Amino acid sequence: MTTAEHTHDNQARRTQLALGTLALGAFVIGTAELVIVGILNLIAKDTGVSVGTAGLLVTAYALGICIGGPLLTAVTIRLGRHLLLWSALSVFLVGNLLAAVTTSFGALIVARVITGAIHGLFIGVASALAAHLVPAGQQGRAVAMVFGGIAVSTVIGVPLGTLVGNAIGWQATFVGIVALGALALVATLAFVPRVGITGPTGLGSQVRHAFAPRVLAQLGVGLLLLGGQFAAFTYLASYLEDVTGISGGAVSAFLLVYGIASAVGVFGGGRFADRGAATTLVAANVALALILTALHYVGDNPALTAVALAVWGLVGFGLVPSFQLRVITLAGPGGDLAATLGASAVNAGIAGGAAAGGWAVEAHGVGSVFVLALIVMVVALPATWAATRLRPAADEPVQAVSPVADPVADPT
After folding, report:
1. Under 8 Å CB-to-CB from 274, ≥6 apart: which residues?
2. Does the keyword Transferase apply (predicted)?
3. DSSP letter (8 states) at residue 400
């Protein structure tokens, strides 16, 4: 092996370690976001509030992502990416430690807002940095590593966290998150290159690029694609019980099929993003319309429903790397800030879709949610197709960053 080949192999290994570390951080953060659902009743009992009131912990986290993430990114835009990542994880640990030791519901709300904002910041910075660390043509797979960490958390982290919370106590769940977060922090310090600032340092310049009409249009497409899906997914358990005719552990098994397929879809979706992110979104939009139609008509057949759910998971989350890569690319030098807007759009779509689905359930029954989701997909299709024509401005190229550590750019 020549010296050049040896250097190349070492560089490739360092890049894979860095991407794996970013995925680990995303796994921890994804677990912290969703595990609250499985221990909500325990928290309500110990803090003396109703389950409905305890649900505000979910809302607080989502608001932290949607609003706090972009704001934190804006005010920290002058910081090096490596410094920002380990600082974010440190604050994330403090927030979850607060949740582990408090018995005050108000303190829990504060902790969830803080950790939600850090979630938005971390995922945005991590996905933008991942795209910068790899050569052209591999950015989609790099971004998929970050979102794959979140997807895997829904299959492994959330069930385990729920199990621990119910067996030992909900505080133990947060202690586990702190322990995993500490591991992610150590790995970040050890394996993520000391990359400095990756775009313009002026807030005005970042905002101008990140909020350009072409970026906002792409964000709108993502909101529709995720919002339409969650209009149905939010009420999937009820649909399986009332329409498919299954209950208890069988419902969990069907949801597990969907979760595993989603994780596989995110990682596989990265390759499609590299081949053509805009085209992938159109294909996914069409496929989702067909899948949702099928689920509406075969919902009373458990076997066909299980197959449809698996395909839905593959496609529905497989489009996420393409969406995030398009947002980062269209924003050009404002990609660091725009990357957090992608997470905001996704969460806004989830919240809006859940609310719309709730209205449909109340007005027309749980069987109507797939009709509503299908309508959203049909409405989204012209916008998704039109978005394929969006291009970064000619004077706003996407800036690349070498994965080689640069102690001058970021001495941390």
Report:
1. 137, 138, 139, 140, 141
2. no
3. P
Q: What is the pLDDT of residue 198?
A: 54
Helix (H, G, I), strand (E, B) or coil at 199: coil
Map 272-318 to HEC letters: HHHHHHHHHHHHHHHHHHHHHHHHHHHCCCHHHHHHHHHHHHHHHHH
In the block, which residue shows the tokens 């009743």? Answer: 41
Residues comprising the chain, all counted: 412
Q: What single letter denotes the amino acid at residue 201?
A: T
Task: Please say whether the beta carbons of 393 and 212 come within 8 A.
Answer: yes
Rg (CA), the chain: 21
Place of tokens 């440190």: 90
Could you tell me if 338 and 209 are in contact, meaning their C-beta atoms sit under 8 angstroms apart?
yes
Predicted pLDDT of residue 412: 42
Q: Which residues of 330-356 are buried (b: 16+ CB within 10 A; e: fewer)?
A: bbbbbbbbbbbbbbbbbbbbbbbbbeb
Please give the structure tokens belonging to residue 106: 């108000």
Geometric angle at alpha carbon 295, from 294 and 296, rounded to 5°: 90
Residue 160 identity: L
State how far the Cα of 271 lies from the Cα of 142, in Å rounded to an integer. 9
Which regions of the chain are under pLDDT 50? Answer: 397-412
Q: What is the pLDDT of residue 405?
A: 38
Amino acid code (one letter) for 92: F
**108, 57 in Cβ contact below 8 A?**
yes
> What is the helix (H) or strand (E) element at residue 81, kind and residue range?
helix 81-101
Q: How far apart are CA 337 and CA 73, in angstroms?
A: 6
Closest alpha carbon to 146 in 157, 162, 130: 130
Round to whole Å and give the CA distance between 293 and 268. 24
Amino acid, res. 313: G
pTM of the predicted protein model: 0.80
What's at 235, amino acid-wise?
A: Y
Amino acid type, 362:
E
Question: For residue 202, how far is the Cα from the chain centroid?
Answer: 27
- The letter for the amino acid at 347 is N
Taking CA atoms, 374 is separated from 39, 46, 96, 296, 315, in Å, by: 32, 41, 38, 9, 14
CA dihedral of 128, 130, 135, 141, whole degrees rounded to 10: -110
Residue with tokens 């706090």: 68
Helices 335-364, 105-133: inter-axial angle, 10-degree rounding: 130
